[in-house]
Amino acid sequence: MKRAALILLSLMLLAPGAAQAKDIVADLVVHRIEITSGFSGAELTLFGAVNEKGDAVAVVRGPMAPGGDLVGGRVEVRKKTRTLGIWMSGAHVRFENVPGFYAIAASRPLEEILTFDMLDRYQLGLGELKLNASAATTPDISEFAGALLRVRQRLGLYTGKVGHISFIGDRLFRTSFAFPSTVPTGIYNVDVYLVRDGKIVDAQSFPLLVNRAGFSADIYNFAHRNGAAYGVIAVLTALVFGWIAHLAFRRR
Q1: What are the tens digits of pLDDT across the range 199-241?
Q2: Do 105 and 165 contact (CB within 8 A), yes or no?
Q3: Which of 112, 170, 196, 236 is most buried, judged by most C-beta within 10 A?
């Protein structure tokens, strides 16, 4: 199926008039990830074709919208301080337009195919990701930005290692992106770039949707729409299971 998709893209690219319109054509095997009760992560394959030999770079980032369960947009990073033996919230920095997920892949090491200015302009590579602070109670914003990146990396939401794009011949390519079980829901953006002689000569963008489905979606929606009721049910459920466990141990 994947090889057939690659061949189809190649034929589209080589069709009359296509080469003049686009130098690169790419797509995902699927454009949606559904999070169910047994969701343990997902892997998506991206495939594409170029009209002439070059390097390819692909980036997945998002969601960017704040609010709800979208782990993106506005993020506050707080530093805990110990005062009189008690841990308290200290200085904090608020960042805007922070993607909840970031992953990148390239056909060669980024520094070998693009200049630093190009990497910085397109935010290619975790080190080039711009974290814009809108409010801060400390002048040392870089420390908080670094802490945010490290936390996201531990959660598997940011990948510091650049993935590999494999070329099949000079024109067809493919790569895969891994999404952890903690991947946030929302709309992601996939950007694919064609690079020649240190410059991006063409690009393509398309969306990726991550949403909840099935019983887990029903529970999540109920919890967010009826927070108080959900809290009461959760407490009562814990008490019932605790009582049942107590009776079981008494009988032994």
Answers
A1: 999 999 999 999 877 444 444 443 445 555 545 555 555 555 5
A2: yes
A3: 196
* CA dihedral for 45, 49, 55, 61, sign (positive or negative): negative
Question: Per DSSP, what are the bridge partners of residue 176?
Answer: 45
Contact predicate 120/104, CB 8 Å? no
pLDDT of 60 over the 50 cut:
yes
Contact 73, 98 (CB under 8 A): yes
Dump pLDDT digits (tens) for 93-131. 888 888 999 999 999 999 999 999 999 999 999 989 888
Where are any strands of DSSP class E within the chain? Answer: 24-28, 32-35, 42-50, 55-62, 73-83, 86-98, 101-106, 132-136, 163-164, 166-168, 172-179, 186-196, 199-212
Strand-pair partners of 103: 60
Burial readout 123-143 (b: 16 or more C-beta within 10 A, e: otherwise): bbbbeebebeeeeeeeeeeee
Buried b (16+ CB within 10 A) or exposed e, 25-58: bbbbeeeebbbeeebeebebebbbbbbeebbbbb
Angstrom distance (rounded) from CA 28 to CA 51: 19
How long a stretch of residues is the chain? Answer: 252
Nearest 5 degrees, angle CA 172-CA 60-CA 101? Answer: 155
pLDDT in tens, 11-20: 455 454 444 5
Kindly report the CA angle at 131 between 126 and 134, in degrees rounded to 5? Answer: 175
Q: How far apart are CA 104 and CA 112, in angstroms?
A: 15
